Amino acid sequence: MRRLGITICTISICFYCSLAYSNGTIDSTAINKKRLNIVIAGTSAAYGASLIALNQAWYKKQSSSFHFFNDNSQWNQVDKTGHMYSAYQLSKAGKELFLWTNMSDKKAAIWGSVLSQAFMIPIEVFDGYSSDYGFSWGDIAANLMGTGIFLSQELTAKQQKVKLKFSFHHTEYAALRPELLGESFLEEILKDYNGQTYWLSFDIYTLANKNPKIPSWLNLALGYGAEGMVYAREAENNANGYTSYRQFYVGIDFDLSHIHTKSPLLKTLLFVADMVKFPAPALEFTKDKKLNYYWLYF
Q1: Rounded Cα gap, residues 249 and 281, in angstroms
Q2: All structural domains of the chain with their residue ranges
Q3: Residues 6+ apart with CB under 8 A from 150
Q4: In the structure, what pLDDT confidence band is assigned to residue 193 with cuts at 50, 70 and 90?
Q5: pTM for this structure?
Q6: CA-CA-CA-CA torsion sign (150, 16, 102, 265)
Q7: Where are the alpha helices (DSSP H) in 101-207?
Q8: pLDDT tens-digit profile of 93-112?
Q9: Alpha helices in the chain (DSSP H)
Q10: Phi, psi of 125 (to 5 degrees)
């Protein structure tokens, strides 16, 4: 549920990105103030609406005095990886918004990163007032790492040679604690860490200096996840007869950013779709030091 607000923000930013694609670019080197005002108004509205929705749907029921909470050992850090992913994607989408105002690539990347943290930090403050959670420095660090992965590449390479992506599959664990892990498939995507896998997708075509022998759409992806987590902490899992384990993957991915089109709608769809790792062959390194092969893993 906490990531619902981030999801709303990401969708909102992607919507405004579609405005950018549909209206094209402008020739002047000056910032288009009209477009900048639209960006400011639009993101402010999405920002306010998402925070109000989060407070009403989640935090209002868990009111407490502000406090800190060390949750770094929970969920085998899959939740922290999710924070990195969300911050990365918001930074990436934010850059597209500011590019629409005719801002330079460097400035757009910086302000997109600032926008990402502006969305993420209030959620941690809300957590500080939640009786079930608390302000987590681990979450803050993960947020900064996600934005750092984006911004460092923009400032050094002016492109994303390594991307963060997400995939999800249904697991048996949500049914064991549906109030915590999700009562529907949509809730499971947001709340069931057992089914979430996060990927570092390497653009090997670009990393190899655009070697013509390598297909431009082909990426190599390294994935991380965990299963067996019915409770947040391992001691709770063990006490109830469950044992969690980490999962590591290596697989094939597809880079949709190399698909060129003049269609504004298709550009937007490709931008959003590039946040997700599509089903593809993958190897899993198991806890028993064995290899599992999947023809299509998601």
Answers
A1: 10
A2: 1-160, 161-298
A3: 87, 88, 91, 92, 95, 109, 112, 113, 116, 160
A4: very high
A5: 0.90
A6: positive
A7: 105-128, 137-156, 178-181, 185-191, 204-207
A8: 999 999 999 999 999 999 99
A9: 2-23, 33-57, 78-100, 105-128, 137-156, 178-181, 185-191, 204-207, 234-239, 264-273
A10: -65, -45
